[in-house]
Amino acid sequence: MKKKKSVTPEVRALTEFTTWYESKRKGKARFPPKGTIGGALVVLDRLKDDFDLDIDAHTAEGGSQISGASGSGVKRVLRTFGEVRPFSIEGGRTNRGLRGAMKSLLDSIRSANLDRISSQQRKLILTGLQQFLVDKVREIHSQKRLKIVFHPGNTTWQTINDLLQAAADGEKEAPVAQYLVGAKLQLRFPRIAVSNESFSTADDQLGRRGDFLIGETVFHVTIAPASGVYEKCKRNLEEGFKVYLLVPDRVLAGARVNASLSALGRITVESIESFVGQNIDELARFSLQESAYELRELLETYNARADQSELDKSKLIDIPTNLRRRKPGREQS
Q1: What is the C-alpha separation between 108 and 40, in angstroms, rounded?
Q2: What are the residue boundaries of the structural domains of the chain, listed by start?
Q3: What is the pLDDT of residues 242-296, one digit of tens each?
Q4: What is the value of pTM for the model shown?
Q5: Neighbours of 105 (CB within 10 A)
Q6: Beta strand pairing status for 146-147 and 317-318?
């Protein structure tokens, strides 16, 4: 009878760790939340010097936040693996669910019995687990971006419409629409802080009145306006705000009818294509040449905002090469 092979500590640790990792992916998402990945990198780094598997040893400020899991902390760990690209601004430090995720991480490591091996061997294994996460970060960065073709003869409206269609084909239209509107508002009002939340973050979760608030106007961005958004619009009106409802052009007519039924004459309903496109034309002073500069600036602003808030980098846009950069020293009006 053959003797059963014993499982090495490395294999046992990786098995437990990958089980934990897979359990943190939500629905069909390819990766866990970026805060979870960032927090795990920091916690594993701390364990290499102080192998304390008690969650309280890794929390701060009343035990609700993970100690050291700031943007700078995550950046520092990634840098040790040669990864210097921006990954996470907050690093998950303010994520309320992060403590639970890190506790389950510590439990998985405890199951691997790494306390029974030498500190040197344990450190190598923990470094290997970090490498696993760094490789995932690199996968995130390498995801295929949205591609669009810029035709100089097309209207800006049509270019925005083409972009939304490309996003719809990749099932990303809703987040792309939100980040497009946010980028447009940021360009139009450079001195105003335009909020930039992850698309998956619900308004109610953050106590937001809508997707954006500029002055006394609330902006709602949706590709499929259902009854809930009209209820939000009515609440905004009751609170004394003006309301904009921005939707794709294909559902504009129906959205205007429903808005009139909900609050006749009180909700401004516009297509995303017109709301964004007209602003680009105005910034370009209706110049064909300058519209390419302004459109590129819109897409670059979009990418910066999406990159800051989204784990899924496939929501970023591959900017066409024939969209020229702004000329140095261009006269401003």
Answers
A1: 12
A2: 9-141, 146-318
A3: 999 999 999 999 999 999 999 999 999 999 999 999 999 999 999 988 999 999 9
A4: 0.63
A5: 26
A6: parallel
Beta-strand pair 65-66/59-60: antiparallel
Assign 3-class secondary structure to the chain.
CCCCCCCCHHHHHHHHHHHHHHHCCCCCCCCCCHHHHHHHHHHHHHHHHCCCCCHHHHEECCCCEECCCCHHHHHHHHHHCCCCCCCCCCCCCCCCCHHHHHHHHHHHHHHCCHHHCCHHHHHHHHHHHHHHHHHHHHHHHCCCCEECCCCCCCCHHHHHHHHHHHHHHCCCHHHHHHHHHHHHHHHHCCCCCCCCCCCCCCHHHHCCCCCEEECCEEEEECCCCCHHHHHHHHHHHHCCCEEEEEECHHHHHHHHHHHHHHCCCCEEEEEHHHHHHHHHHHHCCCCHHHHHHHHHHHHHHHHHHHHHHCCCHHHCEECCCCCCCCCCCCCCC
Are 310 and 141 within 8 A, CB to CB?
Answer: no
- Write phi, then psi, for 29 (nearest 5 degrees): -65, 140
Q: Encoding tokens for residue 39?
A: 């927090």
Report d(CA 108, CA 300) in Å as an integer.
41
Q: Which two tokens stand for residue 195?
A: 């909020």
In this structure, which amino acid lies at residue 208? R
The region, left, alpha or beta by phi > 0 then psi within -120 to 50, assigned to residue 73 is: alpha
At 103-117, the pLDDT tens digits run 999 999 999 999 999
Give the dihedral sign, CA 242/245/249/251.
negative
Site of tokens 């808030």: 309
